[in-house]
Amino acid sequence: MDNEVLDFDIGVGVSSGGDVDDDAIDIEHHVIDDDDMLDSPMPVANSDAVNYFPEGDLLDLEPYDGLEFESEEAAKAFYNSYARRIGFSTRVSSSRRSRRDGAIIQRQFVCAKEGFRNMNEKRTKDREIKRPRTITRVGCKASLSVKMQDSGKWVVSGFLKDHNHELVPPDQVHCLRSHRQISGPAKTLIDTLQAAGMGPRRIMSALIKEYGGISKVGFTEVDCRNYMRNNRQKSIEGEIQLLLDYLRQMNADNPNFYYAVQGSEDHSVGNVFWADPKARADFTYFGDTVTFDTTYRSNRYRLPFAPFTGVNHHGQPILFGCAFIINETEASFAWLFNAWLAAMSAHPPVSITTDHDEVIRAAIMQVFPGARHRFCKWHIFKKCQDKLSHVFLQHPSFESDFHKSVNLTESVEDFESCWFSLLDKYELRDHEWLQAVYSDRRQWVPVYLRDTFFAEMSLTQRSDSMNSYFDGYINASTNLSQFFKLYEKALESRLEKEVKADYDTMNSPPVLKTPSPMEKQASELYTRKLFVRFQEELVGTLTFMASKADDDGDLVTYQVAKYGEAHKAHFVKFNVLVMRANCSCQMFEFSGIICRHILAVFRVTNLLTLPPYYILKRWTRNAKSSVIFDDYGLHAYANYLESHTVRYNTLRHKAFNFVQEAGKSLYTCDVAVVALQEAAKTVSLAMKNEVRRTVANGHVKEMCYNEDCQQQVPQPEPKVRILFFAILVALIK
């Protein structure tokens, strides 16, 4: 053949010593990878491509020089079939074209481990590699070369048989990249099962059963997952105009309806975000903590839908906006969070909860650097069931032990001890997933998060708002054309439930369980659900005893525990001057509801009403009013008790300390008695000229009914005043 030939690389491979352009899609974030390992995803084949398979005697034939094929595709299929039988993966390396017409006249097929990775490539120097790929190229020389003859047929012109690496056994060869392909019938079955709401794992189980084994399926769960993801994205891209038309109409009807589109609305569309007027208004009242729920972007669902949700004053889930996740890169998530922040008047939340995802974490660090980021514990528990399914089956007690180590530990030390005991008990110290979640423990284990507000009703249970706003409306089979009607139904239903809760709070007074003025005060301030939660804590104090553990002047530490359970005690530090306490359980910091341990301390110190500090406006029936807490117009009796209690506790604390000193000797005791007599006369005179307080026009005025009262009331020495009240303390006790 007299054709002049020109050697060059056509982009599907490189000559020995080079690398290949990667076109694989990563299972999670579409990161480029070219490994031939078990988890390496294969490219999704063009649905119009024609597949060639060797037939008859060629199935068991070994290549040799002079072997003829009808076409280049037949030669490639033959060598790939041979590679499958032997135990290696193939790829196209180099080509030669005719200068006359540009037609390919020679091909070289090589072992996938041919050549070496070029670590000095410009593309590796110009960008940071976040996840270095496994080295798979080892310089293997095995190859098959074919060239086209004048007859149009292709003939083997060179064959190198030997490999410089171990070959893959038959039960794993189906995982090699060149041998993984989703056939037409398999695609049809996947499409049908995906439409029925099944996820990749269940679909693969069905395929394995249908084909009689994983090796006969011809591809892996990774390939199935990627195929489903591409299917869904193509479907969304085809219907995205429906969504944009809906958002434009909503904005035209109400300019306060906010939406944003990444990219151009007329061309390539990225992520889409929107927030209706109610969502934006609700954020101003309850935007202290936010959940970004990406459950619906999993392959089980047909819509990559992600709502921003929160919790209202009734403990119900509320909506802060929605997104369609078309692009899942860090930059796209950062764009989405910035769009949401713009809709919420640039007020970032105190805390935000998301799924356990590295890309989302990076975007949150970029957009919300001051917010406390938490991974959803419930999602991690669900992943645990998947990652450790064999442990759950072999050890029924594992789930309970895992729950206890995470939810029931009271301190960091307790958690660390329980966690490693768990790993040792079930021999899981080397489990990679458990090592990964442990390294992120500060973002999902409760003992590390209790110092931050997340608006949860319980320290141990899953929040009602987590992944529940659209429960019962959007499911795995919901498509975009059905979405809008179901979305609006969900909004109407949630609004109806909120209105019903408002009505019940205002028109159905709760049943009080104690004669405590504090309970009556709380019943008039909190919403019904929050009052019931407070009432549980208040009644719970009856089983607790609070005893003084340390007294450092103004700061007193109490040990609070049930009778006979001192080893389970909590410690409350109480500042009597400012009427503020902090408990080691940190329930108030985490949920905004005062705990029974602090309430037990308030009981023994005769603090009869809740100080304003412990009544968060976001939990009250007036949460949506513009009235600040100090102007709530609290019950007059509660106001009186609160101010009286603060004065009483301050004076009693100072008097008690002074009496202890005065009673150490007979002489100091006699001096104290004389001082008390003088103090009694001073207070008696002051009571005759008492300053009365009255409220006029919302402001407090002080009126003295004796014009010379300031002159008639001498200012006693502080110690004399304190000693007088020591007598009152003794009488009260």
UniProtKB/TrEMBL annotation:
Occurrences of domain SWIM-type (ranges): 574-606
Tell me the superkingdom of the source.
Eukaryota
As one GO molecular function, the record gives: zinc ion binding
User: Per UniProt, which keywords does this protein have?
Assistant: Metal-binding, Nucleus, Zinc, Zinc-finger
**Matching InterPro entries, A to Z?**
FAR1_DNA_bnd_dom, FHY3/FAR1, MULE_transposase_dom, Znf_PMZ, Znf_SWIM
Q: What functional role does this protein have? A: Putative transcription activator involved in regulating light control of development.
Q: Quote the PANTHER family the UniProt record gives.
A: PROTEIN FAR1-RELATED SEQUENCE 10-RELATED, PROTEIN FAR1-RELATED SEQUENCE 5
Entry's family note: Belongs to the FHY3/FAR1 family.
What protein name does the entry list?
Answer: Protein FAR1-RELATED SEQUENCE
Which taxonomic lineage does the organism of this UniProt entry have?
Answer: Eukaryota, Viridiplantae, Streptophyta, Embryophyta, Tracheophyta
